[in-house]
Amino acid sequence: MELALRDKIAGRSGIHQHPRPTMSSAPAPGQPYISPWMDQDLAMFRDAVSRFVESEMVPQDEHWRQQKHVGHEIWRKAGAQGLLCTDIPAEYGGAGGDFRHEAVVYEETQRRGLSGFGQGVHSISARVKLLVA
Question: Distance (Å, rounded) from C-alpha 119 to C-alpha 115?
Fold first, then answer.
C-alpha cells in the first residue's frame, strides 16, 4: 500500500514497478545479523557497551522506572566509560567516534528495553553546547 501511494505521488501508474531489492547483508537462517558497518574496533566497543549495560543498567531498571528517572550516578559512570557523546570529536570533549558508536549505545540499551536513559537527548544537547556555542 505504501508503495502504491508513493507511485501515485510520483505520477506513476504502477504498471512498471520493479520489486525492491533484497538486502545482501541479511543473515542466513539461524545466524545473527551483523551490520555491514561493523568492524573489529566497533565490535569491541559493542562488547564493552553490552557489559556496561548488563552490569550497571539492567539491575537498576525497575528502580529507575519507579522513581521516573535514572538518576545522576549512571550518567557519571557512563561518562567515565566513554559512553556519552561518542560521536563528538575528542578535542571538544567527546569520545571521538562517529554515528556508529552512538548507534551501538542506542542498540544495546534498546535491546534490553531500557528506555529511560535518554542518551539521544543528552547527545543532542551536548552537541549544541560543545559544537555550536
Answer: 9
Question: Distance between terminal CA atoms of the chain?
Answer: 45
What residue has cell string 559544537? 131
Cell of 105: 549505545
Does residue 67 carry a pLDDT above 60? yes
- Rounded to a whole number of angstroms, the CA Rg of the chain reads 20
Higher pLDDT, 12 or 108: 108
- Beta-carbon contacts of 83 under 8 Å, excluding residues fewer than 6 positions away, are 49, 52, 95, 105, 119
Per-residue pLDDT band at 56 (split at 50, 70, 90): very high
| Structural domains of the chain, with CATH | 37-132 (1.10.540.10)
pLDDT of residue 1: 45
CA distance 25 to 27: 6
Give the burial string for 94-113 (b: 16+ CB within 10 Å, else e). Answer: bbebeebbbbbbeebbeeee
Cα dihedral 54, 34, 116, 118 sign:
positive
